[in-house]
């Protein structure tokens, strides 16, 4: 399985009509935030593959459609719900949600049993200027805890909590920076230790020097910075070994 991961930068390698020639065998797309929504729309339209996205701390024009707490007097509830269900040709919003994606099946090499890809997501960054979609570490942990029942259900039914954790910010002390805007969430380290995702895909940290570290290992989870684009290749056995 090949998954195209994108974040933070409208990559000309992606945003062109020949993109499928460059990436001919993509099975799914993960969008890790701070991307214009017309870019997400383009990706969905061109690839026609399962696409999942979360919001970052910028490009938040459409954020109120997906979060009822971000009130907008000009948007009625019916329209808000319709946008979440139908916008962007079927891209799925994973902000503080879990997803059992049955269109992306993986096979246990020992038993031959197939099971769906298990994904969860968290939008936003650490709070630094009281802007939209920014959270204290405590608030983010509360939001993550709300996903716990679904993750426990995954463990009971499929033998694992989660395959991929999609976020905008990184965990604290993994790929993050020391300025207030780009510090990671300490609670993401707790989440990794508790729910053991095989992969964590994040954005937010720009790789101005492509020699900077993009991939780190933490408690059995591969933490990957999706800045611009990154192609994640997942053998079936890789996911199912991490139970």
Report on this model:
With 243 residues, the chain is α/β, with parallel strands linked by helices. 26% of the residues lie in helices and 26% in strands. The strands form three sheets. Strands 5-6-9-10-12-11 form a six-stranded mixed beta sheet. Strands 4-3-2-1-13 form a five-stranded mixed beta sheet, covered by helices on one side. Strands 7-8 form a two-stranded parallel ribbon. Helix 1 (19-22) links the parallel strand 1 and strand 2 (28-31). Helix 5 packs parallel to helix 7. The protein is globular. The chain starts with a strand and ends with a helix.
What would a concise description of this structure say?
The protein has helices spanning 19-22, 37-47, 63-66, 77-86, 137-145, 148-158, 186-195, 236-240, and strands at residues 2-7, 28-31, 51-53, 92-93, 97-107, 114-122, 125-126, 134-135, 164-167, 199-202, 215-218, 221-225, 228-233. It has 243 residues and is α/β, with parallel strands linked by helices. Helix 5 runs parallel beside helix 7 (186-195).
| Largest sheet features | 6 strands, mixed
User: What is the gyration radius calculated from CA atoms?
Assistant: 17 Å
Q: Please indicate the percent range of residues in DSSP E strands (runs of 2 or more).
A: 25-35%
What is the count of DSSP helices, taking H or I runs of 4+ residues? 8
Number of strands: 13
Structural class, from helix and strand content?
A: alpha/beta
Helix fraction, binned, reads 25-40%
Strand adjacency order, main sheet: 5-6-9-10-12-11
Q: Low-confidence runs (pLDDT<50, min 5 residues)?
A: 70-80
Shape: globular
Q: How much is the average pLDDT?
A: 89
Order of helices and strands: EHEHEHHEEEEEHHEHEEEEH
* Termini gap: 19 Å
């Amino acid at each position: 399985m090949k998954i195209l991961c994108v974040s933070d930068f409208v990559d000309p390698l992606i945003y062109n009509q020949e993109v499928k020639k460059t990436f001919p065998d993509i099975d799914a797309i993960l969008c890790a935030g701070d991307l214009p929504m017309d870019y997400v729309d383009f990706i969905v339209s061109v690839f026609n593959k399962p696409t999942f996205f979360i919001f970052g701390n910028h490009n938040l024009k459409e954020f109120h459609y997906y979060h009822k707490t971000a009130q907008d007097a000009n948007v009625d509830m019916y329209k808000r719900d319709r946008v979440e269900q139908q916008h962007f040709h079927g891209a799925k919003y994973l902000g503080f949600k879990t997803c059992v994606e049955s269109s992306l099946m993986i096979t246990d090499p020992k038993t031959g049993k197939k099971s769906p890809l298990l994904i969860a997501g968290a939008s936003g960054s650490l709070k630094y200027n009281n802007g939209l979609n920014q959270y204290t570490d405590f608030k983010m942990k509360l939001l993550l805890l709300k996903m716990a029942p679904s993750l426990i259900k995954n463990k009971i039914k499929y033998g694992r909590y989660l395959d991929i954790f999609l976020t905008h910010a990184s965990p604290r002390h993994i790929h993050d920076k020391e300025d207030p805007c780009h510090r990671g969430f300490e609670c993401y380290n707790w989440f990794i230790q508790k729910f053991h995702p095989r992969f964590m895909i994040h954005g937010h940290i720009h790789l101005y020097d492509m020699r900077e570290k993009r991939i780190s290992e933490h408690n059995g989870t591969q933490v990957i910075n999706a800045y611009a684009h990154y192609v994640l290749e997942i053998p079936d056995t890789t996911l199912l070994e991490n139970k």
